[in-house]
Amino acid sequence: MKLRYGTGEHEVELLGFDADAIHVRIDGRELAATLDPLADGGAILAFDSRRFRILGARRKGAITVAVGSSNYDFVSVEPGTRSGRRGLAAPEITAPMPGKVLRVMVKEGDAVTAGQTLVVLEAMKMETSLAAESAATVKRVLVSEGEMVDHGAVLVELSPAAPAGPSDSQGEREAR
Amino acid sequence: MKLRYGTGEHEVELLGFDADAIHVRIDGRELAATLDPLADGGAILAFDSRRFRILGARRKGAITVAVGSSNYDFVSVEPGTRSGRRGLAAPEITAPMPGKVLRVMVKEGDAVTAGQTLVVLEAMKMETSLAAESAATVKRVLVSEGEMVDHGAVLVELSPAAPAGPSDSQGEREAR
Amino acid sequence: MRARKFKKLLIANRGEIALRIIRTARMTGLKTVAIYSEADARSTHVAAADDARLVGPAEASKSYLNIAAIIAAAKDSGADAIHPGYGFLSERAEFVRAVDAAGLIFVGPRAEVMAQLGDKISARKIATQASVPVVPGIETADLRAAREFGASAGYPILVKAAAGGGGRGMRVVESAANLGDALETAAHEAESAFGDGRLFIEKYLARPRHVEIQVLGDEHGTVAALGERDCSIQRRHQKLVEESPAPNFTQTTRDAMIDAATRMAQAAGYTNAGTVEFLLDGSAFYFLEVNARLQVEHPITEIRFGCDLVAEQLKIAMGERLGAISDPRGCALECRINAEDPGRGFSPATGAVIQLRTPGGPGVRFDTHLAQGVEVGAYYDGLLGKLICSGATREEVRRRMISALDELAIVGVTNTAGFLREVIASDAFARAELSTRFLEEHFPTGPHHDSERDTAALIAAALVAKDRLGSRDPQESDGARDSIEHSPWTEMPKFELWRTR
Amino acid sequence: MRARKFKKLLIANRGEIALRIIRTARMTGLKTVAIYSEADARSTHVAAADDARLVGPAEASKSYLNIAAIIAAAKDSGADAIHPGYGFLSERAEFVRAVDAAGLIFVGPRAEVMAQLGDKISARKIATQASVPVVPGIETADLRAAREFGASAGYPILVKAAAGGGGRGMRVVESAANLGDALETAAHEAESAFGDGRLFIEKYLARPRHVEIQVLGDEHGTVAALGERDCSIQRRHQKLVEESPAPNFTQTTRDAMIDAATRMAQAAGYTNAGTVEFLLDGSAFYFLEVNARLQVEHPITEIRFGCDLVAEQLKIAMGERLGAISDPRGCALECRINAEDPGRGFSPATGAVIQLRTPGGPGVRFDTHLAQGVEVGAYYDGLLGKLICSGATREEVRRRMISALDELAIVGVTNTAGFLREVIASDAFARAELSTRFLEEHFPTGPHHDSERDTAALIAAALVAKDRLGSRDPQESDGARDSIEHSPWTEMPKFELWRTR
């Protein structure tokens, strides 16, 4: 299976268990680790002389894991899934965090330049400006001022200002 | 439903919920309480100007509850269930706690007197002597020395020494 | 003398600080009333109090900042005193006036003192009059005046809200070219955060330390100073790590700072618990501001001085005289565990606590309102808990903190614990090379990369996924586990679960 | 001088004390090795250590008392020192000899000192020689000699194991008629618990208090006494509640007891941490025994003196000199939370932790190995955790303990927390009317009846049952809750879960 964490993607396969070890293949490299379950539902995972205390659960389609006190949120990337956030010019402006839409600074049909602020989001009393990555035209505004939005919510859809390239761009192939 | 806690039995019925209260009947007395659920899976239960923080779960056929820091283990008593532990003379000797059988002091066929020690149990390094409630004959010994037993395990079965009464005794009717 | 005994305390706050105040209030024999927004109906602070009142919908402006609703909740529940905690209304003089007007006791300074100290301009005046050194600066939102100040004092300069504190609305301006934008944005943030758009501009110190003095003032004119806290490790002017005593801090400078803080509190007529903040530059220090309330990092002072600062606040509010305070002992260190993703620029994180593993043992205190099932939303600030370690020496405490952070896990809410472990374990922190630039200098890109830990995470994720693929072994499903997966109250009809009271 | 630096510590114990020792060892920079029986493979102490070794099946005699297996585990894992904790092998001189013979460091007193103090007869001799007062008594398992002693000293008399401590094998004999049975049972218990059937008989004091002195001795001849602990609240000679300082205890008596304990430790050539126990009868006190190990209730001393007794033990074992110890500050109180059913004569309880709600906040420490999912079996003693509260005054600490006990809930394992809340909240405890008879006198039938609390329990039980009747509302089932009910590792093949390592 392919797992995405942050901007990185990894291919992970559980090869099997035997009495001593769990065998996995990660990005082509095979690895044997010991796994000792704990009463709290977690386990001790050990390999290469290091020992990690792990916990984990599924959450709304994502997989959330703690290694020691560090958190990881993975998304399982299925083959054939579109990945709209990594194109040459992002066709959508999404909320990088949950928060409140403070200001919407564009309307449908507006031409915008690279770096121009489109939406100002407030989260935990800090303001974050969301800007266009490149010149574009505003296709659709999906939120209004005062609205609460979740992480990842699409706020504004854009059309590239330059002659439209193929929708299955190089960026998207990379993302798989 | 009938719930047993320790030696007491109570009839509890949930009559219904409305916007303000939960209505119950306990041993014939009706009561309205407020119930405010908490994020941890528990709730605040309030009635008669008192406020209790409750948690609870099912466990191996029993219901286990915490009210504040006090624990309660209830057994649901179904109509028609035999309750062998409350007869005039208990026909069985059961383990009052989990532990190790230290000594078995009788064998099948032995005549025993009231108060005579039949089995010595060790739990958490303390010894507990289990004695006959009244004169009886040992019908069957179900454990041997050194064996670990659970709470409620039948250790010794007895036959009354007096002329045998009807097996569906008054004590058993009470227990329903 | 406005003070008198009170019996029932309303806590006008939420989260860990509401719980912490309720704990002490119960200990002192007071009845407690929690307030909550619709988003917090199931929260831990609601459960811990003797009574709880809904004050409005999730948005803070309609609930935890809703003065009328909070006063009404106090009246309705029979509370005769209000503790504001920190944040929310804790430094709003109009809230204190409303509490006074309702005939209730406010656990904090008088309204006029709060108003004076809450305004940076008048606070500076008091400091100057009390011979407390201040950083050069002026109040203005005017671009021309700001440019003149920048030209004379030299860049970088700092633009901040004249009202309020906590880093909100603060901007560092590196050159005159950025000044216009900065003034506009800061004024907007100041207006929206504090309802007061006035700005203050001052000389920005390049690598200062943030050191502050805890003070207690009773209503009989006595002011006590309870040592210092070094809070230099900050991100965007928000403190992340605090310690006491401040390392590499001479007794001469400490004495001078304590004297200055005491003069400041006395000059302001300060009562109850407050903090006088300074920027330390070498052995020189400058008055920054007074936080006219309990501070987030107050526990490290409590532990060193063997006192309960909330209990002291309650005594002062009852008009009692300050009692003897023990001499400080040992060291204490606090890490703020925030719901933020250090791997994604510390963007706020939300979620429900799926699993919680808390640290413990000697010298470990973890103040949190978290429990399995508690939801962390985007409505309020993301402080999940404060991990506080104490011991005889800084190094002992530092190692204890590393060990305690290793024990802590909050599955379901991405948080700063793993990153703070790196910070505390870093050589720079071990050597106490503290400045407010610490994180930019030593962790410019956030957490360091640990490829083995990432591998462990990938394996863990694959195991979680495997479960979904249906490898459940029925033999493994024993009674205890089954029970754990049952929580009867989750099965109640929805209206029951979210009903207000 | 046998002492030297060591780097890797094996903890020859389990449960809360193993975890507590591991925490300090990590803090001091040592690597740690846990041992575990087959029943404890998933335990918290195993997870907390750097390495863990299986030493045998569940039965203690084959695992935690298995000297050969433990020494082998130390050798195999590269440990160079062993901490015994309390209970199990902690007071077995032959274990110390085996550790010495293996070339490892034992964190505790020397074998010969332990042997002398572990034997009540020779311990009494040392006390008498050091002018430490003792209760009249003789060593005998002979019925005739026991009868003679009883006739001369007067009943009741106490029959106890000459070896060991902790109340095991102790019997109070009210009259000569019961003496024969008591001797036989006590000898059997002494034999099975300590492998030594010798008995000691002494005058039984009717309403004494149990007060003990914590001592630390280094290998350079220095002995320090760290104040007293009152442990009078006992059930069947097992301590349930401990506090420091002892209330209603004059400074004169305190000084005299501290002097006596110091003389005793010096006369015995005692090294490392130990406790000298006394019975206090008015202002007279009598030597009871020396516990040649860390005591369960050591945290209340740690908190008052601002020290870490395990860290002190490790330093002493490394041959370091005792450092300066701070003066004591404030008060501390401990409640032992045991897996026992107070409503059924304190019979042992077992089960898995289904839900756990732990207390916290200022002045609260909860030392426990519990977590959701941890199983409590019948193989070992039932100490689930120690709740320790501290503060400025006894009354403050007492109220804090009530509040902390209110916060504590362990669903799935019946325990003493609710009962101890009643004890701490009782007028008799508030007035500090302490004696070892406290529970018999004030709680002769265990917990008091609270019919409203019983009603709350019945309603809660009915709600739990309702869930089983199928009232699940699918709308209520949100993503977060679903996740909470999933734990991927419970789905692993069984052999994986219980595999040894």
Write structural notes for this entry.
- With 176 residues, chain A is mainly β.
- Helix content of chain A is 3%, strand content 54%.
- Chain A has one helix and 16 strands.
- Chain A has one helix at 170-175, and strands at 2-5, 8-17, 22-26, 29-37, 43-47, 50-59, 62-67, 70-76, 92-94, 99-104, 111-112, 117-123, 126-131, 136-141, 148-149, 154-160.
- In chain A, the strands form three sheets. Chain A has an eight-stranded antiparallel beta barrel with strand order 1-2-3-4-5-6-7-8. In chain A, strands 9-16-14-11 form a four-stranded antiparallel beta sheet, with no helix packed on it. A four-stranded antiparallel beta sheet of chain A has the order 13-12-10-15, with no helix packed on it.
- The longest helix of chain A has 6 residues, at 170-175.
- The N and C termini of chain A lie close together (12 Å).
- By secondary structure, chain C is an alpha+beta fold.
- Chain C has four domains: 8-107, Rossmann fold (3-Layer(aba) Sandwich), CATH 3.40.50; 109-134 and 205-329, 2-Layer Sandwich (D-amino Acid Aminotransferase, Chain A, domain 1); 136-203, ATP-grasp fold, A domain (Dna Ligase, domain 1, 2-Layer Sandwich); 330-501, 2-Layer Sandwich (D-amino Acid Aminotransferase, Chain A, domain 1).
- Chain C is built from 18 helices and 23 strands.
- Chain C has an eight-stranded antiparallel beta sheet, sandwiched between helices. A five-stranded parallel beta sheet of chain C has the order 3-2-1-4-5. A four-stranded antiparallel beta sheet of chain C has the order 6-9-7-8.
- In chain C, helix 4 (93-101) packs antiparallel against helix 5 (111-118) and helix 6 packs across helix 9 (251-268).
- Chain C is globular and about 65 Å long.
- The chains are: A mainly beta (176), C alpha+beta (501).
- Chains in contact: A-C, A-D, B-C, B-D, C-D.
- The interface between C and D is large, with 71 and 71 residues.
Task: Set out the fold topology.
The complex is a heterotetramer, with two copies of chain A (176 residues) and two copies of chain C (501 residues).
Chain A: E1 2-5, E2 8-17, E3 22-26, E4 29-37, E5 43-47, E6 50-59, E7 62-67, E8 70-76, E9 92-94, E10 99-104, E11 111-112, E12 117-123, E13 126-131, E14 136-141, E15 148-149, E16 154-160, H1 170-175
Antiparallel strand pairs in A: 1-2, 1-8, 2-3, 3-4, 4-5, 5-6, 6-7, 7-8, 9-16, 10-12, 10-15, 11-14, 12-13, 14-16
Chain C: E1 8-11, H1 15-27, E2 31-37, H2 44-48, E3 51-56, H3 67-77, E4 81-83, H4 93-101, E5 105-106, H5 111-118, H6 120-129, E6 137-139, H7 143-153, E7 157-161, E8 171-173, H8 179-194, E9 199-203, E10 209-217, E11 223-235, E12 238-244, H9 251-268, E13 272-281, E14 284-291, H10 298-305, H11 309-317, E15 331-338, E16 340-341, E17 347-348, E18 351-352, E19 355-357, E20 364-368, E21 375-376, E22 383-391, H12 394-407, E23 409-411, H13 417-425, H14 427-430, H15 438-442, H16 451-468, H17 479-484, H18 494-498
Parallel strand pairs in C: 1-2, 1-4, 2-3, 4-5
Antiparallel strand pairs in C: 6-9, 7-8, 7-9, 10-11, 10-13, 11-12, 12-15, 13-14, 15-22, 16-17, 18-21, 19-23, 20-22
